[in-house]
Amino acid sequence: MVAQGRHQGRYNARLFICGLPVLKQSLQVVLSLYLAMACSLASAASVVFLNPGKSTEAYWLSYAQFMQAAAKDLGMPLQVIYAERDPQRMVEQARAVLQATNRPDYLVFVNEDYAGPEILRLSKDSGVKLFAVSSTLTVDQQSLIGQSRERYPNWIGSLVANDEEAGYLMASRLIERGRALQPAGEMQLLAFSGAKQTPAAQFRERGLQRALAEHPDVRLRQLVYSEWNRQRAYEQAQQLLPRHPDATLIWAANDEMAFGAMRAAEELGRVPGKDLLFATLNNSAEVLQARLDERVSVLVSGHFTAGGWAMVLLHDYAAGLDFAARGGKDRHDALFMQLDKPQSQRLLQRIQGKRYDLDFRRFSVVGHPRQHDYNFSLQPLLD
Known about the structure:
By secondary structure, the chain is of the alpha/beta class. The chain has 13 helices and twelve strands. The chain folds into three domains: 1-43; 46-161 and 304-333 and 346-381, Response regulator (Rossmann fold), CATH 3.40.50.2300; 164-301, 3-Layer(aba) Sandwich (Rossmann fold).
C-alpha cells in the first residue's frame, strides 16, 4: 500500500504539472517549453543497478560506465551500487533499496551466485520493476518460481549475452591459430573456467565443449575452476603446465585468469603467442594491449555493453513501448565479437578515455515506430 500510494502521488503530480492551463497568449511559447521540460523530468524513470563486482574491477567498472553513458543520454537517473563480489552483501543491498522510502522505478540485478530468486522475493509488493542482466535465472530456478512476468509480474524481463557462443568462438578460433603452427597431430589444451556455480561460466564451458566435439584431434587435458581470479589461475597453472608440458593451447574464460596462467607460463620459459597460444574474453585495457602485442592470440569481447542496452529497453518500457513486442521479454543478444588488432586498438582508445559517447536514442524505438527489433552489438563502439 505504501508503494502504491507513492506511485499514485507521483502520477497525480505529473497530471497537475502537465495539465497547467495556458492563461495568457503571450506566455504560450515560454510556458510550453517549461511544461515540456517539467513533464520530461517528472516522467524520467529512475534506475538502481546492483553491480555484483568490485568497485576496482576493470570489467564491472566499464560495465557501469557504459550504463551511465546510456542513462545520461536517455535522461534517466541511475545509481550504481557495488556488492564487492559478496553475494550476501548484494542481497542486503537489494533489501535496502526495495524497502527504502524513496524507491526507484527499476532495479537491475545479476543472478550472481544464484541470488536472483531471493532478490525477486524481496521485491514483492515493493512497486519496483526488476530487470535481469548478464546472468538471468537458470532453467532450474525458473522451473521453481516461473519465468519473468509470471509469479513475479514486476520482473519484466532480461538481457544476457550469448555466453555459449563466446566460449565456442574462443575455442574454435584458438584451434585454428594452433593448427597454423602445428598442421598435423594431436594438440593439447588446458582450460581455466570461472566460478562453477555461475551461469556465465557454465555457458562458456558448454561452448568450449561444442568446439572440442568438432575437433577430435584436440585433447582437453584438464579444466579447472579459477573463480575468475588471477592469483588462483596462476597457482593452478604452476601445477598444470609442468604436468602437461606438451599443451600448446590455453582457453581462459576471462582475462584475469588468462594473465594468471600467462605469468606461470613465462616463469617456466614459455612464450605466449609463440609456443603457447591464449584465447580469452574481456575488455580491460590490459587484455586489449595484450592482443595488440599478440601475447593473446584470440580475444572476444562485447558483453560489458549489456547494461547500457538494458537502459534503452527500460527507457522504452517507461514510455509505454514494451520491448517484449520487439524481440521478446527475455533477450539473448549477440553481443560478443572476436576482435582483430585494429578493432582492439579502437576499443582500447575508448576504454582508456572512458569515451562511450553514443547516441543511445538511435537504438530506442521511441520516435522509430517502424523498428521491429533492437540491434544491440559491440560494433557501434568500433565504428
